[in-house]
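Methods, example record. To illustrate the input and output format used throughout this study, we show the complete record for Putative transposase. The sequence lines were provided to the predictor; the line carrying structure tokens was produced by it.
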Amino acid sequence: MKRQLFGKANRPVMRSDNGPQFISHRFAETCEQFEMIHERIPPKTPNKNAHIESFHAILESECYQRHEFESYQHAYEIVVGFIYNYNHERMHSSIYDMSPYEYIDAIKLGITKPKEIKV
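The corresponding predicted structure is encoded as:
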């Protein structure tokens, strides 16, 4: 990511829980370096980060639990393949049974309207 892509008003926001990897000084420095806004959800409120919690549950059940990794490289290849499939081929009932990339293309072509996300 390049800092020059974002103006001060529309910096990317990363929402996370309060896990140890997100409260470290190194992580805070990295957010500053990339001019990102780090937004923490309140403790014991995974519903405030439901989309990513759902993704991690799917990643766990459909990827991690189905493979026995032999090395970091093997795990990396399997996970990257899963994420590609998740974004390009897997149908998502929440977006009209399309893959995320099909959904974005359908919006760009005016075939469908974006779904509203309730916050």
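Annotations derived from this record:
Residues 1 and 34 are 7 Å apart (CA to CA).
The helical segments are 25-33, 50-62, 72-88, 100-108.
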